[in-house]
Structure to design on (256 residues):
């Protein structure tokens, strides 16, 4: 077990603050969207959203009412911007960007991870701090967050920052890019949470306290989604016990 924290406290704290801020931003943003659940102006059509006029279910929204949702949305936007700048500045100055920036061979390594998860490869591909699929996800997430903030500012100040709104294709398209980037970031976040739960639940400790035990890593456990969750030595202890139990039952049935 290593004494060195796997993740610096700045990375851990910004991760959880951003997770909370983004969750509130999504819920409050959907509440704001429901005030006008379409992208096309009245009397016009829009090419790229097949659910025009359909409200988002209230249970997915946050803020209670339009004004409340706007207050939460803008407050959390500044939290996301502040912590995002702290995180990006830290990984740049601390050199952790080297673990995240795509490199030659990542596409090949990502394909090997996919083959492993699809049972086309028996052994877990070796990798550094993050596998190639994680690197791509962690690299894209801050970019999507930046797109959300920029397009959100374009929607917020379409007159005084008209040049920015026009740069994004106008108010309608700025709303659409804002919404699309949010959906993409939610999808990546859901996939991230799913993989943590199903493949590497032990990583929660490293993201809370920084502690890490390599014996519980996905490579050591040869872990796929919901397979190999227990450490190898525990599995080896459990399997013989179950084999003995079956053998004992078989012996009793044979003697009766």
């Amino acid at each position: 077990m290593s004494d060195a924290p796997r993740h610096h406290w700045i990375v851990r704290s910004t991760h959880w603050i951003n997770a909370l801020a983004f969750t509130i931003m999504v819920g409050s943003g959907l509440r704001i969207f429901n005030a006008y659940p379409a992208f096309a102006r009245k009397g016009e059509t829009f090419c790229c959203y097949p659910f025009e006029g359909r409200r988002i279910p209230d249970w997915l929204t946050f803020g209670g009412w339009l004004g409340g949702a706007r207050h939460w949305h803008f407050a959390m936007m500044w939290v996301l911007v502040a912590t995002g700048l702290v995180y990006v500045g830290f990984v740049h100055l601390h050199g952790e960007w080297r673990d995240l920036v795509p490199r030659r061979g990542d596409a090949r390594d990502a394909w090997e991870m996919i083959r492993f998860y699809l049972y086309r490869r028996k052994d877990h591909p070796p990798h550094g701090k993050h596998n190639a699929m994680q690197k791509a996800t962690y690299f894209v997430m801050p970019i999507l967050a930046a797109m959300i903030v920029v397009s959100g500012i374009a929607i917020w100040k379409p007159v005084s920052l008209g040049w920015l709104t026009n740069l994004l294709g106008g108010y309608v398209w700025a709303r659409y890019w804002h919404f699309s980037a949010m959906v993409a970031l939610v999808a990546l976040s859901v996939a991230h949470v799913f993989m943590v739960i199903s493949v590497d639940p032990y990583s929660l400790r490293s993201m809370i306290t920084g502690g890490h035990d390599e014996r519980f890593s996905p490579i050591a456990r040869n872990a796929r989604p919901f397979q190999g969750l227990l450490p190898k030595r525990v599995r080896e202890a459990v399997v013989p016990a179950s084999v003995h139990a079956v053998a004992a039952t078989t012996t009793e049935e044979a003697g009766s």
About this structure: Residues 242-251 have pLDDT under 50 and may be disordered.
